[in-house]
Structure formats: structure tokens, C-alpha cells
Design brief:
heterodimer, A: mainly alpha, 2 domains, two-stranded antiparallel ribbon, 74% helix, disordered N terminus, B: mainly alpha, 3 helices
Chain lengths: 586, 89
């Protein structure tokens, strides 16, 4: 896939290919470096847009809500109604809620959801929006009424407990129970409200604008590297169009339920074109898998915030950061020694994909070890199929075993590949399971940085060497995929920023500002373009050798089974034997 | 020798490439609307679809920043741990 280095059509196509000594010229002629500059340019733009524009009275409001939380925590042995209101009010403060951020989001937005008519993903008239709102209103009114009733009962129960100065255990427990019921009703109202307040839209002009902007952005990068801006720009329209179709396939109601996301569809659509009518010649200059992936990965680096690993305390670290590397290393070892996988890069890509967090881990690992593009495709395909199975199967098994919500959430969060599917499985089980599962997955997501860096170093220092060969640090540097440096630096810088501005402020300005408001959306588009490019340049025949003996499936099933058992045991020990006080507080 | 652009597969020989494309599109549509619907007959799948729909979850998200639930969940847990009820009856 590296256009600079391919020598013949018969050579293998790699996700990333980098070799040779570093020269000053590389800084503006190699895709690795260009991806770093372009990624950092976007990160700087994001910081300049959001950091000088915090929501009004941010510090005062945070101080006020935190004071209420502190006071209420000291007042009662359970989380009071006022405690929950203050916590909700904090969550309502987001840099992305401001008008300028909404405009950016509107411009960058992907196609919306649809069921029968694909055009619904691009255009919704006011009449349709009104009809949707009218249809959703009865459910919203019902949810609102249920929430009102639940709140009244919670207030009565809390007042009864307060009347006894919170010294009556039975009254305290009753109040706690009623407040939890109210919280669940409130959450349902919030979701019902979102369905009853949809707006009309026309995404077409924005998508055309975005296509021109992204085409010019990457075209400029290509031009600096010495390639034709014009040829790239013209071909880019086709690649972007297929990426839009991939998003539309993801948002189709049934596909959304099954977790079949845009990466899979982008590859499928690309493959379909390239293996039937062939990728048109005028499109080929814009088929730039590596460039899109590397730039996207630099942006992803900024989303790897190391402080997140403390989100659920020590048990979370043990579950996500101990079980996962053990599974990863053991699966890779079994793949090499017992299953005898046909390729080390396929082995590590599947192992990381299965043990860490699905598609995102597969992309980062494949790029770090210079895996072939069909290996990445295979790993993603496997991951999506098993994710769909686990998403439905694991909550059912957890119910059958009678697992408490926190244990089930931790188990599913650490073992279901895809981050979104984890939340769906958690929500299937209950509110607390959803929160724990999503948080554990978030902690595990952070492991991508360490995995990609570790794999890149291991590959340069060991795998790519002759037997017994010792490699100097300089040689490792020459071979090292340079964009990984950008990926790690972005992670370190944003982690430092995240740490220094404080947890609440970071959640509002970094997480729900720079990242979710700008760079994340761009990163997702870059990955959609990358997967489309993979499809457009892959021949079906290239997959054939990998299916011999069903080894990839055997590896996946082994690793997943091991992880399911190990995580369940470790999660139980950590949440219920070693740190029960944290479990009780959650 | 270096090539400026990636080696994309050439149009396939045999059956008309346009016809092949049409068949491919048809298969995708059958998968989306046919098999996708049938799969809902799997026990639990229908309930899962309802949960995803009610909560408007993005089950296809590939990273924690791609949807709201991890942020909501981690912030709730953080408040629960940082402002843990400390009153002893």
C-alpha cells in the first residue's frame, strides 16, 4: 500500500511499510511524517477552537455542584436526590453544547439513521421530523409521568429517612431504593425526550463541503510529498462517496442492532467494486490507505488519556490491564507455537483485536507491525462476527449464572471486542452494568497506546531480525514506524493536559470539547476513507491462503474462551473479595 | 522501479463485470433486509434491538469517545467514588 516503495504488483501489500535510514527530506516526503504534521495540525486547531471558549460561568458552576455533592455525601448514608441532581447538572456542562461547537458538529456529521429508505440518512423534511416527534411524544409523556411519580416517592422516602436523622437503617435503605428507581426512570425519560425532539436536516450540502475540505487537506499533503494534487482531489470524490455509503449501511436500523459498523461496510463496498468492474484508474491516486490510517491514528493518540485507567479504581486496572495483556501474550504464543498461524502479523493483529478492543486495536496493531491489509480485513471481519454473537450471548449467560450487575458489567466490558457492543450488552443487563461495562471498556481502550508501541518495538527489535541478530537502538529507530511516535506523543501531551486541568474541567473541555467536538469526528472519517481504500485495492484471492485449516477462527475462539474465563475469575476476586468497598460505593 | 499509485485489482474476467456488481449489490441488500430481519428471531436478539433503539446506543462504536455512555458511566462512577456518602447512622 505504500505507493513510494512498492516494486511490483506481485509484492505483498502492507498496512504500513517503512524502512531505511531517516533523512531530513523524509520529514516532508514520507507519509509517516506527513501524517504526524497533519494530525498535529488538526489537534492544534481543535485546541485553539475549544480551549479559549469555555462554557459561561464554568468554574463557578462546577464549584457550586461539587460543594453540593460534598455536603450531601456527608449528610446521608446514601446518595440523596440533591446529590444526583448536582451530579446530573455537572454532566450537562459540555463545551460541545455551545453554538459554535454545534455548527462544527453539523458540518462534520456522518449520515443519520434510517430503516427502509436510504435517503432518510441524508435528508429529513420538517414534516417528517414533526411526524416522528408526534409519534414519539406519547412514549415521552408516559416516561415523564413515570419519572414524576418516581421522584415523588423518592422525596417521601428521603424525607422519612431525614426525619429520623438518617439513623434508621430500614428507612435509609428504602430511600436509597426509591432514589435508584427514580434515576432509572429519569434515564428513560432522557432517551424518550431525545426521540421526541428530532430536527429536520439536509446533510447533502455539508457532505459535499466536507468532501472538498478533506480532499483539499489530504491533497495538499500529497502535493507536499511530491504527488499530484489534482489527480488525488478528483479521485477523492469517489473514495469519499463510498465512505458515505459505508456510513449509511452502518446506520441502517438492523445493521446498527448487529453492530456491523462502517469499517466492515467500507471494505465490503470497496471489495465489491475492485473485484467486479475494477477500481477506475482516475480513482486510484486517491486510494491512500496508509495516509488516511496514519493520520487517523495520530488523532486517536490524543484520545488515549492515561488518567482514564483510574476511572473505576484499582479493580478496574486489574480487570482491564492485567487480564488483557495476559490474554494477548498467551493467544499470540499459542498462535505461533501450537496453532502455527501462517503469519506472525496476522497472529498479533487477531490477538490484539480479540483481547483489547476490536477494530480500533486491530488498526493500531496492524499499522504498528506492518501487517498486510488483507490481514487487517480478516481480523476486523472476525471481530465483528464474534462481537455480534457475544453481544447477545454474554448477557444471557450472565443472567443464567445470576451474576450481579457490577460483575456482569466488568466481565462484558473486558471481553466483548467492540466498544459500542459492550454498552449495548451492559444496557441489556441493567443501568449499573452499562456504566461499569462502558467504563471498563474505556480503561481497556487506553491500552491501545501501550500495545501499539510495544508491538512496534518488538517487531523492529525481534521479529524483523535474523535469528541471533542483535539490533542497535539506531537500527530500531530506522525501522520504527514513525507515525507511532506521533501517536504516542499526542497521547502523552493530551494526558498531561487532561491531568493538569483537573478531572471535571478535562471532561468538559478536552473530552467533550476538543476530542468529541472536533478531532474524533475527523478521525472517524479518516478511518472510513482508509477502509474504503483497503477494499478498493484488495483482490478476493489474497484472502484464500489465510483460511487454510481455519486457523484464524481457531485462534480467535481459543483467545476469546480463555479471556472469558480469566476475566470472570479476576473480576469476581477484585470487585467482591479484594475491593468490596469500591463495589459498594458504585 | 516504483509505481506512483497502489495496485488495485483489474476488472475480473469471465462473467460480465457489471452483472457481477449487480449480483453483489443484490446480495448485500438480501443480507441487510432479509438475513438481518431473520436474525431477530434468535432468542434475546429482539430484546437487544429494543434496548439499543430505546437508548439510542451506538453499538457499532469502535472507541470510547464515539458515543456518550462511557463518559456518562465514568463520570457517575467518579462522583460516586470522590463524593462517597460518608455519614454513619
Amino acid at each position: 500500500m505504500n505507493s513510494d516503495t512498492l516494486a511490483s504488483p506481485h509484492e505483498p501489500e502492507y498496512v504500513v511499510l517503512e524502512s531505511g535510514k531517516t533523512r531530513l527530506k523524509d520529514l516532508y516526503t514520507k507519509e509517516d511524517w506527513m501524517a504526524i504534521w497533519m494530525g498535529f495540525l488538526l489537534l492544534i486547531v481543535g485546541l485553539l477552537i475549544f480551549l479559549p471558549n469555555p462554557p459561561a460561568n464554568l468554574k463557578e458552576d462546577l464549584a457550586k455542584h461539587n460543594a453540593v455533592l460534598k455536603e450531601e455525601a456527608a449528610k446521608a448514608p446514601f446518595k440523596t436526590i440533591e446529590w444526583h441532581n448536582a451530579s446530573s447538572a455537572k454532566k450537562g456542562i459540555r463545551a460541545t453544547n455551545q453554538d459554535f461547537a454545534k455548527t462544527i458538529a453539523q458540518f462534520l456529521a456522518a449520515p443519520s439513521g434510517w430503516k427502509d429508505n436510504p435517503l432518510d440518512a441524508l435528508y429529513r423534511s420538517k414534516a417528517t421530523a414533526d411526524a416522528m416527534n408526534a409519534a414519539a411524544k406519547p412514549a415521552f409523556d408516559k416516561a415523564k409521568e413515570a419519572e414524576g411519580t418516581a421522584l415523588e416517592l423518592a422525596k417521601i422516602a428521603q424525607a422519612a429517612a431525614a426525619a429520623e436523622a438518617f439513623k434508621n437503617t430500614a428507612l435509609n435503605e428504602a430511600a436509597d431504593k426509591e432514589i435508584k428507581t427514580w434515576q432509572e426512570a429519569k434515564s428513560k425519560t432522557s432517551k424518550a425526550k431525545a426521540k421526541a425532539s428530532v430536527k429536520s436536516f439536509n446533510r447533502v450540502p455539508y457532505l459535499i463541503g466536507l468532501c472538498v475540505l478533506l480532499g483539499a487537506f489530504f491533497g495538499l499533503g500529497k502535493a507536499i510529498m511530491g504527488q499530484s494534487f489534482g489527480k488525488f482531489f478528483v479521485g477523492f470524490f469517489f473514495v469519499f462517496f463510498i465512505a458515505v455509503l459505508a456510513y449509511m449501511a452502518e446506520t441502517q436500523a438492523l445493521m446498527k442492532y448487529w453492530g456491523f459498523g462502517f469499517p466492515l461496510w467500507a471494505i465490503v463496498f470497496g471489495l465489491l467494486i475492485s473485484n467486479t468492474i475494477g477500481t477506475p484508474k482516475w480513482v486510484q491516486p486517491a486510494v491512500a490507505t496508509e495516509f488516511f490510517i496514519k493520520t487517523g491514528l495520530v488523532l486517536l493518540g490524543a484520545e488515549i488519556l492515561f488518567n482514564k485507567i483510574l476511572a473505576i479504581g484499582k479493580p478496574g486496572i486489574f480487570v482491564a490491564w492485567i487480564c488483557t495483556p495476559i490474554t494477548l501474550i498467551l493467544t499470540y504464543w499459542v498462535g505461533q507455537k501450537i496453532i502455527k498461524m501462517p503469519s506472525k502479523t496476522l497472529n498479533i493483529t487477531i490477538s490484539a483485536d480479540m483481547s483489547v478492543c476490536g477494530v480500533s486495536a486491530a488498526i493500531a496493531t496492524a499499522a504498528a507491525c506492518k501487517a498486510k491489509k488483507e490481514e487487517l480485513t480478516l481480523a476486523i471481519g472476525l471481530s465483528m462476527i464474534f462481537t455480534a454473537i457475544c453481544m447477545v450471548g454474554q448477557p444471557a449467560v450472565a443472567k443464567l449464572l445470576g451474576l450481579p450487575e457490577i460483575l456482569a458489567g466488568a466481565w462484558m466490558g473486558s471481553t466483548i471486542d467492540s466498544t459500542g457492543a459492550v454498552a449495548a450488552a451492559g444496557a441489556f443487563y441493567g443501568e449499573k452494568a452499562l456504566y461499569v461495562a462502558a467504563t471498563i471498556k474505556m480503561i481497556q481502550n487506553v491500552l491501545i497506546g501501550v500495545t501499539a508501541f510495544g508491538v512496534a518495538v518488538y517487531w523492529c527489535a525481534r521479529v524483523e531480525c535474523l535469528e541471533g541478530q542483535t539490533v542497535s537502538w539506531w537500527e530500531i529507530w530506522y525501522r520504527f514506524p514513525k507515525f507511532v511516535v506521533g501517536f504516542i506523543i499526542a497521547s502523552i501531551l493530551f494526558s498531561i493536559l487532561d491531568q493538569n486541568i483537573g478531572k471535571d474541567m478535562s471532561a468538559i473541555m478536552i473530552d467533550h470539547g476538543v476530542l468529541r467536538g472536533f478531532t474524533r469526528i475527523a478521525r472517524e472519517w479518516f478511518f472510513a476513507l482508509a477502509f474504503t481504500s483497503i477494499g478498493l485495492e484488495t483482490n478476493f484471492k489474497e484472502f484464500k491462503p489465510y483460511f487454510k485449516g481455519g486457523k484464524p477462527i481457531t485462534l480467535y475462539v481459543f483467545g476469546q474462551s480463555f479471556q472469558l474465563i480469566l476475566t470472570l475469575i479476576v473480576a469476581y476476586i477484585m470487585f467482591y473479595i479484594v475491593f468490596p468497598e469500591i463495589t459498594a460505593a458504585i | 522501479m516504483t509505481r506512483p499509485y497502489p495496485a488495485c485489482p483489474d476488472p475480473q474476467a469471465g462473467l460480465n463485470p457489471g452483472l457481477k456488481l449487480m449480483i453483489g449489490i443484490l446480495l448485500i441488500l438480501i443480507f441487510m433486509f432479509g438475513l438481518g430481519s431473520l436474525a431477530q428471531l434468535i432468542p434475546g436478539a429482539d430484546h437487544m434491538a429494543r434496548v439499543i433503539d430505546e437508548r439510542n446506543l451506538r453499538a457499532t462504536a469502535i472507541y470510547y469517545t464515539d458515543f456518550e455512555e462511557p463518559a456518562e458511566g465514568s463520570e457517575s462512577i467518579r462522583d460516586s467514588l470522590d463524593y462517597r456518602p460518608s455519614f454513619k447512622p
